[in-house]
Amino acid sequence: MYKTPDYDNEQLSFTSFNATCGMQLDPENEWVHISKKLPWRAWESLYSILFPSDTGNVAKPCRMVIGSLILQMRMGFTDRELVSQIQQNPYYQYFVGIKAFQHVAPYSRTLLVEWRKRLDIDLVIKINDMLGDATPKSFRFRRGKSQFKNGTLLATQICDATVAPQNIRFPQDVSLLNEARLKLEAMIDFFHNEYDIPMPRTYRKKAHSEYLSFAKSKRPGFEKTRTAVKGQLGYVRRDIEYIDRFMQDGYAPARRFIDNIITIHVLYEQQLYMYQNHIHKVDDRIVSISQPYVRPIVRGKAKSPTEFGAKLHLSIDETGFARIEHISFDGYNEGPQLIDALKAYKYRNGFYPERVLVDQIYRTRSNIAFCNENGIRISGPKLGRPALDADKTRKDHRTASKDNSDRIEVERYFSTAKRRNGMGKINRKRKDTSLSTIAMSVLVTNIFSTFKSAVDEYEAEIASLPSRQKKQGRKPGISP
Hints:
Blueprint: H1 14-21, H2 30-35, H3 40-48, H4 62-75, H5 79-88, H6 90-95, H7 111-118, H8 121-134, E1 148-149, E2 152-153, E3 156-165, H9 173-195, H10 204-215, H11 222-248, H12 255-277, E4 296-298, E5 306-317, E6 322-328, H13 337-349, E7 355-357, H14 365-373, E8 377-378, H15 390-420, H16 431-464, H17 467-472
Parallel strand pairs: 3-7, 7-8
Antiparallel strand pairs: 1-2, 3-5, 4-5, 5-6
């Protein structure tokens, strides 16, 4: 069950919280300042729906759950470190909504796993949308970074895609087969010990020796690699046959082995197919036994031509606020996603953007035709021959240069999310928690970039107004 807290009286004021701490706290601390501005009440309405029952233990409040995950993504803590830091740091305790400073940990670290399961990607995306609605429409902090029209920002959408890399070992055929063999041998040992089945011959010492001989080679050639793959395929096939025979005879494997048995069967079929056909590509290729949902994403970049993780299509509006338009562990072409992103922009704002800034992969004929039909200027050169008018050509070059400069904002956003807010390496083991972690990284990046900057500027502009205008409730910087 869930009990909605009273946000007016549940937590002590900062002055009272300061007194319980026994030390002088800084009221301008980043966590104290941002905690007063976040839309906790709005998020509460979403979170409370997850608890339809009125019986059972009372769940932790929304502010503690979402605040802890925001804190973890921002600071890069592990689950154990997060609980320890909250226990020691009064600023963190104030941010997650604890009534008064305490020396006892507010919850166990194992609860964080359940919270990440509960806050799935759809819920985090809704939380992010609510944050966008709560962001003051104050545009001056973006001045100099985009075009203006009638004193406000020109309605703009920037679209691009990136990969959030999963924390897995770089996949190699021989190492994957060796890992599968080790797991199968552990299963065979289980059947032998649990059901007193005679131990079959597995050649595990010989297989391990062959793998070490290959792994220690500095530059194994083509023939040596194929020989090693062939050998490991044989050992894996033999172990799979043993386990299949055990199960046909009525012996049940342990529950922890079931997912690995299914994954290793698929892995063996894929590796055998590639070996027999002398290829290195197969549909839905498994690159990690523990995380079989991860797929190789070909990016074609110099540093990492292939990445392993979820690919997300991101859009950024004229205020710098980002939203996930599409995300999947399977590779896809982001070009056809542009029309859906533009329709989502119209759904949120009631009109299409005046311009959309994209790279070359989005400039398909269907996307260009859709933009022309709806009065949207898409960045990039026009189709056909260049214009003969020199003045028009120079104007088009200036516009293209300005568009390219403004489009850098999405690259800056990706860099910030990966370097600072946890998107650079996803350490979750489950598919659902990995996706929610990526969405949480986008949320945290929005909080500490666009939302924080907009709130700070809005408050500064309110403070600069004459007292008469403050009483009339004038809100500066609001787009008409």
